[in-house]
Design a protein that fits this description.
Blueprint (H helix, E strand, L loop, with lengths): L2 H16 L6 H4 L2 E5 L2 H7 L5 H15 L2 E4 L4 E6 L2 E13 L2 E8 L5 E9 L2 E6 L6 E5 L1
Antiparallel strand pairs: 1-2, 1-8, 2-3, 3-4, 4-5, 5-6, 6-7, 7-8
Length: about 140
């Protein structure tokens, strides 16, 4: 095997065992995350009725302001148009690039959420009781 081919083989093998260089998903989810609104923006370009366009713009602005922060010490903060919610999270399970966590905000009930890590600055979030997938980008 030639030296370049051997290097390529080693890199590919290593990427399989390390998640393509993204790192430990438990560590990747730590940080501040905002909704990736590009899909919603594209959908809004197809609207023509003035009232629908205005409602879409209001929804988009609310979504842009949402932020989820997961700290290394296990605290969680969700902020947005309706204020801030503070609480705690625990990592329940890691399965490849998916991290299952339980988030409990002050005064609320525990909520299971699955995060799928795509890269160090892109994850998706699937809240436990919903069928919607929310794309998040690092802020």
């Amino acid at each position: 095997m030639t030296k370049p081919a051997l290097c390529l083989f080693a890199c590919l093998t290593l990427s399989v065992f390390t998640g393509c260089g993204v790192g430990d998903p438990r560590e990747v989810i730590v940080g501040a995350w905002g909704l990736d609104v590009t899909v919603v923006e594209e959908a809004g370009k197809k609207l023509s009725e003035p009232m629908a366009v205005r409602m879409h713009q209001m929804k988009l602005e609310a979504m842009r302001g949402m932020r989820l922060t997961l700290a290394a010490d296990g605290t969680a903060t969700m902020s947005g148009a309706q204020g801030n919610q503070r609480g705690a999270y625990t990592v329940d399970k890691v399965d490849g690039d998916k991290v299952t966590v339980t988030i409990t905000y002050e005064g609320g009930r525990p909520d299971m959420t699955v995060f799928q890590v795509h890269s160090s600055d892109r994850i998706t979030m699937v809240p436990g009781d919903r069928t919607v997938t929310l794309p998040l980008i690092r802020k």
